[in-house]
Structure formats: structure tokens, C-alpha cells
Amino acid sequence: MIFRFDPARRIVAVTAFLSGPLGTTEAELALDTGASRTLISPKLLAFVGCPIPTDAAGLVVTTGSRREIMPKVVVSGVTALGHAVRNFQVLAHQLPASTSVHGLLGLDFFHDCRLEINFRAGTIVLEPPHD
Length: 131
What we know:
By secondary structure, this protein is mainly β. Helix content is about 5%, strand content about 45%. It is globular, with a radius of gyration of 14 Å.
């Protein structure tokens, strides 16, 4: 399946749907091939009924500027680019206010997929894993 993105933007933004116990909401996520894990805003996680555990062990993540401990949260599902992952573990993290997205869609989302990003054409081709 082929999806379009605006190559003039500084990020590859994609529409995703995040599901939790309270329902599903639309989110704009940056497709980030440099991120091994998917990050979602704590506010968005709370909105779909996935509160951030305060007593659970988090994951130490090295960002572009420092190391941080980010809580792990399991969401009912994330759907983007025609691909859905159920019972998906994401990291709760608030990106800087200057960021125009609700999180990052990391490489963990694309496990066993074929992903092609064509910046010249502004297209993304995602072939989900074969069942």
C-alpha cells in the first residue's frame, strides 16, 4: 500500500490510531527510523485509558541529548499506514513543546514489515508481515 507524506516538512508525519480501554483516538506521529521504540505522549495515553504507571520500572533510553527513564505502557493497539499491532508496548514520553506530533513511530512497529520511504516522491510503501 502506498501512502503520501509532505517531503517539505522537517519530519515524516503519519496518521495513527491509538486504542485503549476508553476507546480509540487519532494521533499524528513522526515516523522515526532512528528510534528503536515507539513513544507516545502521556496525555494521549491517558485519554485512551492507559495511565502511566508510577511504580513500574521503566526503560533507560538514550535520546539525542541525554539518557532518560521512560515508563512502559501496553496499549490495546496502534494502527498506521495500513498496519495494526495489537497489545503493543510503547514508551510514555512527552516530546518538546516545539514538536508538532504526539510521539514517534519507531522501528518496533515495523517488525517483519517491508518499509520503503521515498523522499523525492513523498511516498511510503509498507508491506505488512505475511501471516
